[in-house]
């Protein structure tokens, strides 16, 4: 409760500073609208449905791409950890491509797939996939051999070994890879949506883009707030519980 | 160098009557290390009868763990062979469960989950059976209250007791124990000496138990085998002819322990001279 109050007080203070900066005319009102204007924009955009529509489109792209990246990345990571043939090929490729900022996929995706959902999907998958491959690979390689040996003597082998011993033992690494993959996917999707108007749907990035075109700063800031809140919610709703579980089970540091 | 194996006629007779549960035949194993080739085991032979309790004693580094891993099927010997129930050991399997020096418990499972792990691999049990068995063994090692604890919340001694419960739960015929109690406090250890003797007797298990604690070996073993290092060999054998259950603090046991200790010191001393 105390922590919540502190947190709330902090954000109220931020709003007050913003309001003060607006009233003191530090910048032109065109560049820095009042918090109230941004609130009004969000309210009207929510009421006429644009905001929900854009959020749903963006989230659908993100979740589908992320899901595909996970489904592909986990087994690929297991393969590269298990066989050197895969490590020297797919593993090396993953290592290289992971260093590529995922925004760089946008031009390529547009040329390959045109202004379509496929281009969006491609960008998000590329953002997710390689992080997950590398994290899974690292996680598996860091499993203490004694776990395998103990499981072997209890009669575990093959698929059972992978699913019940190696994957859970690698979980802390895998989850941090999932988190990184999520961040990369989210960023690259926003970049893609801002760069190009995709005819198949107006996402949050496009709202941001048109806010700029129209010099509608209330819209720009409003959408940024929405994007930040979505990122925060994803963390709180999805990743935090998993991480709390890991910390509790493994006894790793947790404040 | 001679193999000074002092066998009593009693065990020779026993071997004739009872076929060996485990038969280790001229097993050698060497490791490549930074300092060169280490001959961890040099033509080691050993017969273990059904329901026998055999202790392996020796200074650290003389190949005890290596031998245990080979019996378990976790490592392959360079030469020689291991038979379990007359059949060659091809790999690890739950009829020969190992309790390692480290507890090796799975941190992603709670205490009960760890004890259930091996049981879940037995297809002929219902889930209720599995839980009942797991709880029975947790009670046996005195950890009923901790069945939902996370592994990192346990003390070293408690972890090793969970590992014991996990090894016993699937009811293996052969238990291979590698200095399982080395990290425990004396009180817990004494309690476990009683428990392990009781379980061994009542469930007719065959146990190969590695330790560097001579008293522990004399307390638990029907036979105590002394290892010498570099190269690892079995050099001497003592038959401990004391009634069970044995108390680690008894005077009779102390005299056995003294004799074994004296031999062990001689061996280690000799081998150091040889090693120079
Ligand atoms: N995996 C390994 N690689 C290299 N050397 C090893 C390995 N395992 C054991 N050794 C060596 O073999 C010898 C016997 O080791 P070990 O069986 O662990 O002895 P003990 O259990 O009696 O202490 C030691 O000299 C050790 O250094
Ligand atoms: Mg050892």
Question: Could you describe the 3D structure shown?
Answer:
The complex is a heterodimer of chains A (255) and B (276). Chain A is mainly alpha-helical and 255 residues long. Chain A has one domain: Orthogonal Bundle (MetI-like fold), CATH 1.10.3720. Chain A has helices at 2-23, 35-47, 50-82, 84-99, 105-113, 117-141, 145-153, 158-195, 204-213, 217-250. In chain A, helix 3 (50-82) packs across helix 9 and helix 8 (158-195) packs parallel to helix 9. Chain A is globular, with a radius of gyration of 22 Å. Chain A starts with a helix and ends in a 5-residue tail after the last helix. The model of chain A has no long low-confidence stretch (mean pLDDT 90). With 276 residues, chain B is an alpha/beta fold. Helices cover 38% and strands 25% of the residues of chain B. Chain B has a 6-stranded mixed β-sheet with strand order 6-7-8-3-9-10, sandwiched between helices. In chain B, helix 6 links the parallel strand 7 and strand 8 (206-211). The relative contact order of chain B is 0.17. Residues 1-8 and 272-276 of chain B have low confidence and may be disordered. At the A-B interface, helix 7, helix 8 and helix 10 of A face strand 6 of B. The structure holds adenosine-5'-diphosphate and magnesium ion.
């Amino acid at each position: 409760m105390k922590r919540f109050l502190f947190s709330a007080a902090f954000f109220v203070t931020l709003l007050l500073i913003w309001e003060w900066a607006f009233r003191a005319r530090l910048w032109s009102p065109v560049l820095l609208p009042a918090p109230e204007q941004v609130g009004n924009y969000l309210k009207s955009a929510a009421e006429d449905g644009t905001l929900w529509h854009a959020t749903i489109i963006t989230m659908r792209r993100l979740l589908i791409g992320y899901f595909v990246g996970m489904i592909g990345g986990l087994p690929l990571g297991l393969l590269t950890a298990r066989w050197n043939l895969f490590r020297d090929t797919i593993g090396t490729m993953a290592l290289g491509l992971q260093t590529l900022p995922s925004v760089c996929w946008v031009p390529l995706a547009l040329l390959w797939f045109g202004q379509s959902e496929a281009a969006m999907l491609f960008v998000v998958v590329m953002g997710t996939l390689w992080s997950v491959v590398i994290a899974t690979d690292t996680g598996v390689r860091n499993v203490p051999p004694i776990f395998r040996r103990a499981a072997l003597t209890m009669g575990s082998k093959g698929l059972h070994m992978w699913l019940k011993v190696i994957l859970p033992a690698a979980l802390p690494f895998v989850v941090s890879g999932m988190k990184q993959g999520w961040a990369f996917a989210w960023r690259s999707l926003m970049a893609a949506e801002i760069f190009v108007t995709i005819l198949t749907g107006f996402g949050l990035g496009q709202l941001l883009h048109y806010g700029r075109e129209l010099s509608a700063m209330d819209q720009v800031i409003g959408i940024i707030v929405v994007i930040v809140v979505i990122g925060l919610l994803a963390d709180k709703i999805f990743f935090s519980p998993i991480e709390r579980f890991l910390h509790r089970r493994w006894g790793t540091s947790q404040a | 160098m001679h193999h000074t194996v002092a066998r009593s006629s009693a065990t020779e007779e026993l071997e004739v009557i009872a076929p060996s549960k485990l038969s280790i035949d001229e097993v050698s194993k060497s490791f490549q290390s930074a300092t060169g080739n280490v001959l961890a085991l040099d033509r080691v032979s050993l017969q273990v009868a059904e329901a026998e309790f055999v202790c392996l004693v020796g200074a650290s580094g003389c190949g005890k763990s290596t031998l245990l891993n080979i019996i378990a099927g976790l490592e392959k010997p360079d030469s020689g062979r291991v038979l379990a129930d007359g059949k060659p050991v091809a790999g690890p399997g739950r009829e020969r469960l190992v309790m390692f020096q480290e507890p090796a418990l799975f941190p992603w499972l709670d205490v009960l989950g760890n004890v259930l792990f091996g049981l879940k691999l037995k297809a002929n049990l219902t889930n209720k059976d599995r839980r009942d068995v797991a709880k029975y063994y947790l009670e046996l090692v005195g950890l009923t209250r901790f069945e939902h604890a996370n592994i990192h919340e346990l003390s070293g001694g408690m972890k090793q007791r969970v590992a014991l419960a996990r090894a016993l739960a699937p009811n293996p015929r052969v238990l291979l124990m590698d200095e399982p109690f080395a990290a425990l406090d004396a009180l817990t250890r004494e309690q476990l000496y009683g428990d392990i003797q009781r379980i061994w007797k009542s469930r007719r298990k065959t146990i190969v138990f590695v330790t560097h604690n001579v008293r522990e070996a004399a307390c638990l073993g029907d036979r105590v085998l002394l290892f010498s290092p570099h190269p690892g060999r079995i050099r001497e054998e003592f038959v401990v002819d004391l009634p069970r259950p044995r108390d680690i603090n008894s005077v009779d046991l102390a005299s056995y322990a003294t004799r074994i200790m004296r031999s062990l010191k001689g061996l280690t001393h000799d081998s150091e001279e040889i090693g120079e």
